[in-house]
Structures are given as structure tokens and as C-alpha cells.
């Protein structure tokens, strides 16, 4: 594999425009050219169809005669002030994508205001006057969730990315694409894809700027919606460039895939190209390429693309963990504080748990993060975690003052909503918000149509989102941005299991806990494109996010046990979603989940409050504090039906699952 995957052996010459003629410039020197140094502060880029374009490592060939030239301008910022490697990335990407201009984002409030104003002027967002600086975006109905089927990992060997099940069966833990096929896909999509649009340069830090646990990326995008969202979700702007210096960074290239060429109007107000959507990751080169989607999970490349798929490879190579986990601090009435990381599949309650208001008197929960955890052992053997994100990208439906009052408080200002419903008084609305509509207030659905309670179709898309700054959450942990991270005492796995799986159980040891995480199954949700409620294998809640072969991932987790001096967290499994025969939930959930955390904390203190079962350690009778809850069917809640577990173990001995490990 070449030094950079997207390197190529041929590229077009640069041409400069003057009032008199076209003339060739001297051969391009990587890292030395400056757009601002060209005549009138402009550069002309020429794309030659059939040639392979790339970000770096290109050699100029030929001196074509052509009179069709597109000039590029630096609209904001100074390329000359960027680190040489960032300049090279920007310049080569601009020659490939041919944007109308380049904007280097500084992350200031003034820039953010201008970005939101631009989006509003173009009809891509609407101001919500009921709140302070809140906005609503409506996407194309075809661009509403992560597209797992079009998300690929690119490695020379297929086994580097995915296990190879026996008999040629197709695995379910990621999609592999060969370098040659990926190069063809890039060549078919990216040349000229930003014509008529601005290329935004987003330097961002995953994790607190300057933390030894943090990593830096640079995203190039032609979407102002992405700019506004990334400013919320990451630390973005000039301070990141100062911290980067001459260091390494993850290269991220994104385009909505809808150039403005003047040849007809876009089909949709929301720019996207669903038929050509592709999200590619090149872990060997620390590169991400996304095309055709503006939805956050596909376009905010610092989230799942960087923070999980690329970071999980970084973590394996460097001896740490990048996981799909919330991080919370919980303090008991005696003042003893513990930190817990918990892995749930998307839309299974991570945000609700991370922001929980405990129903038990005297208990306090504080949020470090609601979605992703980067964890590394310190010099004393403690596993420490940071939240690499800077905001919340939460699922709106089901969020209410009852289920998550802290989330509702968080989103009252500086929030970008996507695909929720809008009320005529300038507010938002969705299923489960539990707020009665005032007299005379009407609702417009996420599709822009009139809606009223009782209508068959939902007013908000099931995967509609709020994007809000983490600092606004009223229960953010004082150490949520501590550069050294917080010490993790317990790891929890969980998913949506309507039958058979008890409310909580503890693993016997680290190896058993790794097995518990690897054997996770959960009912599918609206966070991806899957239809219907089916039980899917979702090991470690990472099924859509593995950056490399699951078997190697499993080995990496198991290897933690052999680290000298490692103080391994205890591992637990929870299931808030078990139902009775009538389909009713057996457990009230939400704030009452503090009762489960109470038992976990007491187990960490060494309390003898568990009994052994074939699947792990469950609470002894009356060990769970149920005071004030009323009638709870603990017998059914903790039952282990033999027929269910025979089927469950059978699902894990199926050849397609057994070969997940390669």
C-alpha cells in the first residue's frame, strides 16, 4: 500500500488565470504552494477526466491546453499559517473537488453566527423563536440515519477488516472494500464534487485540547450544516491548530455530493446524493472519506467515523480502548463517588442514563459523556477515560421532562434540531415529549406537512436528533474535561431484550465479562437503516463501528488482563427493557435505574449481595432497594427461562457467529 491510500501516479497541472492569457505554472511542490500567492489571490484548478486524483503524493504530468478554468478563492483564513501537512491536504483536496472558495474555520462565535445566518438564508434551517439561538433542519427523507450498508473499511486484506465465516457466509460485523474498488469509487464521486460550493476547513480535537488522551483531525466539507454541528460536537478552531503543530492528524474529506454547476436546480432543498452515498475508512492511513449524505452520523466525521472506527484501530495499535460507551460519575449518600462506563447500542438509553436524575434520595449522577469513551491505563494501573466529544447528538423522540429532565434543560438554547416537528409558536415537538399543546398551537411534521395528535404518521422522524453543547447540561461532572480522564470502576453492557435477560447481573471475572460483552444482542432501533424490531448480535454495542476484525478486537480486550499492575474494572450487564406476557415493561427504568447502580456500587465495595447463576451473579433476594416502587415482579424480572437460554446459547454456537472471530 502506498504512503497514502488516495495517492495516485497522475494529476493535472495547475493553471493560472490572467487578463491576457492562460499559462502553466511551474510544477506543483507539495506543501509549498499558497492559494493566496496566486494572481488576485486566486488559484485555477483543472480536472482532467480519467486521471486519478488524490490528496497527497501526486506527481504532475502534461501541459494540457484548455480554456475551461475554475478559479478558487480563500474566503477566510490564511493557508500560509497552516501546518505544512494541513496545507498540503487542503490544496490537493481542493484540486480534486474544485470548490468555489475555501474557508478556514477559526471556531469563533462570530463565525458561528455567520454560518447559521447563511444556512437560514439558504432555507436549510429555521430559527425557533421560542428558545435562545435554537434552529431546526429538515433533511431529505432519504437521508435520515447512518447507512451501514454503504459504510466500508478499506484494507489490503479482507481479514484485516472482517472475520471470514466458513462456507462463504456473509458476516455482519462490518463491510470490507478492497483498495482498488475504493479508489474507483472515489474517482467516480469526488472530482468536481464541490463545484459552486465552499470548502470549509475544520481543524478539530477529539477530547480536551492538549490532553494526552486526545487526538486531532482536520475535516474538509462543503456543508455549512456540518460546520455548525461540528462546532458543537468537537473542540474546533484556531486553538486546535496551535496544539497540532507538526503533529499527526486524521484526514477527513466530506461532500454532500451535489455540485452546483448551474445545470438545473437541485431536486431537494437538502443537498445529498443517496444513490452514491459512501462512507469509507482507511485505518492504515488514518483517513476518512464520506460522500453523498448530510446526516450527522455520516457527515460529522469526528463522531462514529473517527471516534470509533479509526480510533479503535489507533487504540489497538497503541494499547488503549475506544468504545461506544457513556461515562458517568455516581455519588452515594455517604459521599463515595464512582465512575462507570456503559455500552448500549444506539437509541438504547445511553443519554438517559448519562443524564439520569436518580429516584433514590441522596444519590447524585453527573455526566462525563453520553456516547463515546476513550480509555487508557495510567501509570498506576487505573483505567482512565475521557469523553472525546464536546456535545450531545441525542435521539429526540422519547425525551421528556419525565424521562430525561436534564436533557430537556440542556436543549433550551444553542441547539440544532434535525427532523423533529415544529409548533406554530416557534417550538419543537416529537413523540413522547409529554407536553400538551397550547390552545390554538398547530404542528408541522418533519416532512413539512400539517400534523395533529392521533395522526397515523409520526410528527418527528424516529431518529430525529438534537445537537447541543455539553457545557449546557446542568449535571456535567466537574472533571468532564480533565486532561488525565476519570478513573473507571465498572463497565456495564446492555441492550434491548424484551425476553429472558434479567435486569442486572455481574460477570464472574474479566474474561467472562469480555464474553458477556461479545455475546450482546439487542433489538434493532431507528438509529440505522434497519427495518422492524429484530434481535441482532451487537457485540460490545460496536457492531456498526468496528475499525478492524472483531476477532482481533476480542483479543485486544482479553489482553488487558495480562497488563502488569492493571486494576481491571468489574463488568456487569443490564436490561431495562424486559416485558411481561402482555407486552408491558417489567421495570420502570429512567430515574429508577439508580437502584441498579446502587447495587453495582455496593458490589464494588465488596458487599455480599449476589448469588451465582449459570450466566453470572444476580442480586440476592431483597438486595435491590425497591422501597417506594410499589409492586415489582422480581421473580419474572430475574428469571432465567431454560428454553430461552438454550436458544440464546444456540445462537452463539451458530457458524455465522462462531466465525465472527475469524
Automatic annotation (TrEMBL):
The keyword Acetylation applies. InterPro entries: PEP_carboxykin_GTP_CS (IPR018091), PEP_carboxykinase_C (IPR013035), PEP_carboxykinase_GTP (IPR008209), PEP_carboxykinase_GTP_C (IPR035077), PEP_carboxykinase_GTP_N (IPR035078), PEP_carboxykinase_N (IPR008210). This is Phosphoenolpyruvate carboxykinase [GTP], mitochondrial. Belongs to the phosphoenolpyruvate carboxykinase [GTP] family. Residues 320-652 form the Phosphoenolpyruvate carboxykinase C-terminal P-loop domain. Mitochondrial phosphoenolpyruvate carboxykinase that catalyzes the conversion of oxaloacetate (OAA) to phosphoenolpyruvate (PEP), the rate-limiting step in the metabolic pathway that produces glucose from lactate and other precursors derived from the citric acid cycle. Can play an active role in glyceroneogenesis and gluconeogenesis. The keyword Ribosomal protein does not apply. Its EC number is 4.1.1.32. Pathway: Carbohydrate biosynthesis; gluconeogenesis. GO terms for cellular component: cytosol; mitochondrion. GO terms for molecular function: GTP binding; manganese ion binding; phosphoenolpyruvate carboxykinase (GTP) activity. Keywords: Acetylation, Decarboxylase, Gluconeogenesis, GTP-binding, Lyase, Manganese, Metal-binding, Mitochondrion, Nucleotide-binding, Phosphoprotein, Transit peptide. It catalyses: oxaloacetate + GTP = phosphoenolpyruvate + GDP + CO2. Monomer. GO terms for biological process: cellular response to dexamethasone stimulus; cellular response to glucose stimulus; cellular response to insulin stimulus; gluconeogenesis; glycerol biosynthetic process from pyruvate; hepatocyte differentiation; oxaloacetate metabolic process; propionate catabolic process. Signal peptide: none annotated. Its cofactor is Mn(2+). It is found in: Mitochondrion. Its main location: mitochondrion. It comes from the Eukaryota.
